[in-house]
Amino acid sequence: MYYIDIVTSQLQKYTQWNFQCLPVSHQLLILTNSNMEMLNLVIFTVCLGAIGVLVYFYWQMNFWKRKGIPQIQCLPIIGSHFKLITGRIAISDFVKYLYSCHQDAKYFGMFDFNTPLLVVRDPDLIKEIGVKSFEHFLDHKSFLDETMDPIFGKNVFSLKGDRWKEMRNTLSPSFTAAKMKFIFELIDKCASDFVQYFLDHSDETKSINTKDAFTRYTNDVIATAAFGITVNSMQDKENEFYVHGADASSFRGFWRFAKFIMFRMFPSFLRLIGEPFVSRSSARFFKAVIRETLNEREKNKIIRPDMIHLLMEAKEKEDGINLSVDDIVAQSFIFFLAGFETSSTLMSFLTHELVMNPEIQEKLRNEVDMIIERDNSKITYETLSKMKYLDMVVSECLRKYPPSPVVDRVCVKTYTLPKPTPDSNEYIVEPNTSIWFPVNGIHHDPKYYPDPEKFDPERFSDENKDNIHPYAYLPFGLGPRKCIGNRFALMETKLLIVYIMKHFILERTEKTQHPLKFEISVTIGVQGGTWAKFVKRTSKVS
Q1: Which among 121, 195, 234, 416 is least buried, having the fewest CB atoms inside 10 angstroms?
Q2: pTM reported for the whole predicted model
Q3: Alpha-carbon gap, residue 482 to 127, rounded angstroms
Q4: pLDDT over 60 at 369, yes or no
């Protein structure tokens, strides 16, 4: 009735006769005609709007073509991520797919959802952007800021500009070779406890989910090295530190995957509803642990060679940076996340390759035995540096399974790139333009690594490693924004592998799969997990 009254009043306003004096049948006819006119107007408006949207998307989706840059196919809203979002391909294979596009170009264009993005596939140009012209490409692309999630938004990876420089300079002393030696004993205890657990629980060694086991080891390492907390996650499998760490670092499962995509596509909406990336319970736990640690150290004047101590020192200096508890939590957490997830993944891939390549495993074990015996059975920081074949094995694993399949940069100052192809033009990169380096694609290019799917540590021998283009090997990134914890990650990985080689022989189980099938996730994982049998050695170095 309300609708009819409106129509009636409008008709009375624009006609000279009284609508209500007409017969009912005529009134209905007029109303019907009026409804049709309004419906036609709505349809016309919707169609015009749809055409406008299609024209906009066509114009936007051809952004790179209009600039004379090679471009891969993309769709509205999801950009070039169709295969990834629909679960047709894992992230590591997606990066290899990207790299295979436009093989004659130094770089090409794509869309990261609705954002134009350049993919640089030429190692020399990668060096130019990531090292020589670093001040033009200072930042990472962050899908959330500190207003959305203080833990993720304030860490050294997400920070930008001068704030990043301040934090990086503050944290760098934590990761020098001298500091690695200083905390070596803390990590050595974790590695020793890990191996001792399996020596004491031989029934569990017949089939080990190595990714699960190694996350427990890296959890204990980070807990002691960064937070000053001693835990044994093999003995106490449901300790709070491990449970919250696993929750905070997991990107697997439909909801976590969907949440990540939503943060990339609709950050403003998630900011509006106040949805954090890290679960509230895990955020509360880590904040409580940090506050308790800070209070305990300040009260009892405790000094430990870890990250929290350096952050406390920076906070107390007169010319130091202004740090809040959230700042300290954020730096400790990103250190935890990197160590918990990526280092344990590296270890799981490494043991898998040793299982599948017993001749490589035996050669590595012989080196471990020889050097430990020569050093009187004592494993030290220097011991690890003497193991050249161990370094070759780890380097090849990082080549075949890089922890970050893609490395990014964001332009902060206008920069001119060379021609992507001989028949194109130079391109002026504007500020806020995102750039990807497809690490996993480069690492599997036969041009740089013949027979790239083969696990071959000899690529990194003294005789061969100089033949590798230095910017075709980027497991930890490059330049000033190279992973700050790479020395730490290598130390904890090598140390545990030495302990395992010293006490066990690795063999395959019924659950061991080869080749590996990767999970559909934003992080690298294996469908069904990585499995191995730890067979206790009957004769070994004492």
Answers
A1: 416
A2: 0.85
A3: 12
A4: yes
